Amino acid sequence: MLEKIDLTKKLTKAEYKAQMPDLHNRLYDLQKACWDANIPSVIIFEGWDASGKGTSINVLTRRLDPRGFTLYPIQAPRTFEIHMPWLWRFWLKLPNYGRMAIFDRSWYGRVLVERVEGFTPEEQWRKGYRDIVDFERTIADDGYVVIKFWLHISKKEQKKRFKKLEKDPLESWHVQAEDWEHYRHYEEYMVAVEEMLERTDTEWGRWTIVEATDRRWARVKILETIIRRLEEALQERGLPLPEGRPAKVPALPDAGQVPLTEMGLSSRVSRSLEQAGLATVRDVMGRLAGGDEGLLELDGIGPKSLVEIKRCIESLASSGAEPAPQGQGKEE
To answer: Which of 27, 53, 55, 54 is nearest to 41 (CA)?
Structure first.
């Protein structure tokens, strides 16, 4: 199965920036619609070490309402948890109706790392397939939307990413001895993954294999898949889909060359933009052309600052009024 996956798929930076704003807006609207409709969802991220699970989750959650989801990074069971049925700790993490639970690794460790590394006797991990299918069937019958991703990269690509991370003193901590141990057992894990995908891909819990060599391609595919599954959940219940909305920033005719210092922004926001090399409203618009991420990735610019910036731009675009003198903006 996995040997047939085309790992050369990719998106250009321009294509990625053109799609992401609409995808984020759509996902936000669907999260709200599912909240109103009491539709819970479980999103599972599995994949090779260094395949981009963490960064994909970061992109996914960046524009979600934090009140509506919980992220669970799954580790080995704690001492008291091993004295309970093995799925017990995951039952406790299921979201309330209308909410979303995102799992960075999940109950599939039973048939992956516990199998390959010998942490669990063969008889028990083989029973794990049945336990998992029954578990997902139970929650799906109760109305949960189960969305499962396997992020796939080649052994060569995994080694390349490990080496790159190790060279960066700020990122080297991501690569531990056990990661290299997993790398050396790549072929054994491949057998386990193939069997896992074959035995747990069901009508109520379908797997989506994500070609993760190109991070931009992977992120777009993940968001598109979640959007499609949430839309299907609403339609199956006879509920209307939220109306689409444009993800565009208003055009600026003559105000584009207005210096940032005369926009009426707070001093702190102005300083953050200037430190990033932006001098005019037009420069800010250029960063926003590819979506909100263009500004949110700057130091000192968060969601609250982004709202302030957009309000100033919209004011200039709609009213044509003179910009406020420097320093008259409100400090955050």
So the answer is: 27
